[in-house]
Fold:
Amino acid sequence: MSYPTRLLAFAFAAALAGPAVAADVDVSAGAIFKDCADCPEMVVVPPGNFVMGYDGGIDLDKPGLERRYEGPVRTVTIDYTYALGRTEVTQAQYREFIDATGHVSGTKCAIWDGETWLHTEGSDWRDAGYGRPPADNEPVACVTWTDVKAYTVWLAEKTSQAYRLPTEAEWEYAARAGTIGEYTWGDDPDGGCDVANHYDQSGLDPKRPHDPVGCDDGYATVAPVGSLQPNAFGLYDVTGNVWEWVADCYFMPIPLVPVDGSAVQGAGSCENRAVKGGSWSSPLSWQRPTFRGRDPEDRISHLFGFRLARDLTRN
Structure:
């Protein structure tokens, strides 16, 4: 049995046992825990190394937009154990933060109307443009990088634990979970509907400027978190559903250092932050784990959400 297969079996066994509310966290690979009864579930990610990036990218034909280069390719070694959210942060979890802090979350969320992106008056995380109220178990969307950073600070203070956004390297390592294909599920462009809520036959919209994949994940828009299968590290929805903000400043090409899992940060202010993983309406080429979105910290879109990271041990 391969390492990813063993780890997937471990993750399913842990899921059957249920998450523990953490005091002293079990740092075994695939262990699931929560730091409080209402906290997001976290999954322990083991140390390892992987090949990050892709020596290529996509060319955008829109005026003023540059080629999205996804390299250079480099080997990253993560020699520490950390935890990632088992799922993306949900509506209910974000509401608890808002109720507890009074944080003023971003408004005028960008919503696709079939022809263009409209920053819609009155739209925010409570109304993400689905034509209905978001469900409590769906990933929160219409949140800026600044909003999600504030959430991590609040949760860290609430739990006295080191919550934060994942780095791009940590995210890509965990999304791959030992796989080496073009996508997180392999190389078949139509093979991802068991694990990824992406633009597929259920969501077919003739107004969209890109083609759907040939399979059907069963969800026309956003899906409740954890609806599909987890990857080999026990993580759900790392591809599709909503884009996930990460900690890094966006630079192209990616600097050759660091290669230890830490975030790329520039001197002074950060013009754009990286986002990863694609969404329920993104083109397939944007669903690759190497693809790198780049958006200002105040960007607000009904396709953007986040996943938590938490420090555990460092060697």
Summary: The chain has one domain: 89-314. Residues 1-17 have pLDDT under 50 and may be disordered.
